[in-house]
Amino acid sequence: MMLNNTHSGLSRRHFLQGIGAGAMGITISDPLAAAARLLSSQDMPTPNPERRMGGNENPIGPSPKAIEAVAAQLSGLNWYPYQPDLEMAIHRFHGIDVQTSEGIGWAGLNTTFIQDSRVVTGVGSTEVLRAAAWAYLMEGGHIIQGRPSYNEISDSARKLGNRVSVSAVELKPDLAYDLEAMHHAIRPDTRIISLCNPNNPTGLLLGHEELGAFIDAIDPRILIVIDEAYIHFVEDTSYKDATLFARTRPNVLITRTFSKGYGIAGLRVGYGIAHPEVIKKLRGYTLGPLGMHSNSIAGAVAALDDHDHLERSRRAVVEGRTYLGRALLKMQMEPVSGQGNFVLVDTGRDSMEIFNQLLKRNILITPGARWNMPAYIRISIGLPDDNEAIVAALQEG
Ligand SMILES: Cc1ncc(COP(=O)(O)O)c(C=O)c1O
User: Fold this and answer.
1) Residue with CA closest to ligand 1 atom 7
2) DSSP β-bridge partners for residue 377
3) Nearest CA to ligand 1 atom 12
4) CA distance between the termini of the chain
5) Same-domain pairing of 317 and 296
6) Does residue 322 share a domain with residue 298?
7) Measuring CA to CA, how many Å separate 329 from each of 26, 202, 348?
8) Helix axis angle, 276-283 relative to 124-137, nearest 10°?
9) Torsion (CA) 317, 320, 125, 161 in degrees, nearest 10
């Protein structure tokens, strides 16, 4: 059996070369040398020898700038983290102006205070989605979402007990969101409408105009959450920056993650953008400054600036998606023409059987049973070698 031991997208040798090349222009600090030594150790476990095509992670590996930044601050792990750096970097990245002031903060530290922040960070976007659910549903209420879609908001809200109810509105036969039916599902106690764009597991994208018209027709007391975890892989040229909605409306929360495009799922960083009042409300339910690891802050700040890596990730995904789409069609299977780093496909067979067959070949995918779509599987885009392996395995039947 062939094991894919370069699954991080970088072989150990290339990885070290990458670190060396990246570090050339800067001072090679001791922590960086220590990290390089650690990575060259024969004892280092090989991460993920399986072909992981079930979790929608980044196939090419983490942003090298993030690796460097993490390595460079390892010797400071004795200190508590300093979070304003990340929040400031996200504001800057999105071109959002904020007022700041300098002052003495926690433990006597000189601290940047951001006034009316429009950004909340979290341990992955999962923490931000959970905070939204808890902030808006603690007293009970109703959520509207699509089915199938990503369920973090409703799953988190259900933990609050039976004072929460959920309307999961079926997607249309073409698997697009049924916005009209979602609108009709609104009740006096509706607190959140949750959308995922592009949607997981379909990968289909709601257009900007359609989304804008939907938002404007909703009572502004209802929070509209738009989860853009996969936005970096969208090719549709009509896509316009949805953070505009979060900046111009009082009730729109856009969530983004560093886990997909930037390739640092292991560092667990995500964020939300919304009106300052929404941000304040969510902060009451996040772990706040002590929730985020110093490595995560350093890695995410550096990744935001790593345009080359993002572009390489995007290209690898688009090429893989195109390759898989064509190959699946040739096998008489019907892929959904989605825009995420995954392909949902109607195999015309029992997806659990396919799942088990692939598992025997060390290939992990997600069977559609999870979404009550028993003939579908969702394949996360891998490296070319992974994509070819899964096609060969599916051809063998
Ligand atoms: C649509 C969607 N939102 C959010 C997440 C969670 O991402 P994070 O790693 O930022 O917690 C995922 C993870 O797969 C996802 O598919």
Assistant:
1) 125
2) 345, 367
3) 229
4) 17
5) no
6) no
7) 48, 16, 12
8) 90
9) 160
**What is the enclosing helix (H) or strand (E) of 65?**
helix 64-72
Q: What is the CATH number of the domain that holds 366?
A: 3.90.1150.10
Structure tokens at 343: 């392909």
Q: Which residues line ligand 1 (CB under 6 A)?
A: 56, 124-126, 150, 152, 196, 200, 227, 229, 257, 259, 265, 270
Clarify whether residues 317 and 285 are in a common domain: no
Residue 275: CATH number of its domain: 3.40.640.10
List residues bridging with 335 in a β-sheet.
Answer: 345
Residue 5 lies in a domain: no
Structure confidence by residue, pLDDT tens digits, 75-101: 999 999 987 899 999 999 999 999 999
For residue 217, how far is its CA from the centre of ligand 1 (angstroms)? 27
pLDDT tens for 1-48 read 333 333 333 343 343 344 343 443 334 455 556 556 555 544 444 455
pTM recorded for the entire structure? 0.89
Amino acid in the structure at residue 23: A
Q: How many CB atoms lie within 10 A of CB 374?
A: 14
Question: For residue 195, which amino acid is it?
Answer: L
Q: Residue 39: what pLDDT?
A: 55
What value, to the nearest 5°, has the Cα angle with vertex 239 and ends 236 and 244? 165
* Structural domain containing residue 139: 84-304
Residue 148: inside a domain, yes or no?
yes
Q: How many domains does the chain have?
A: 3
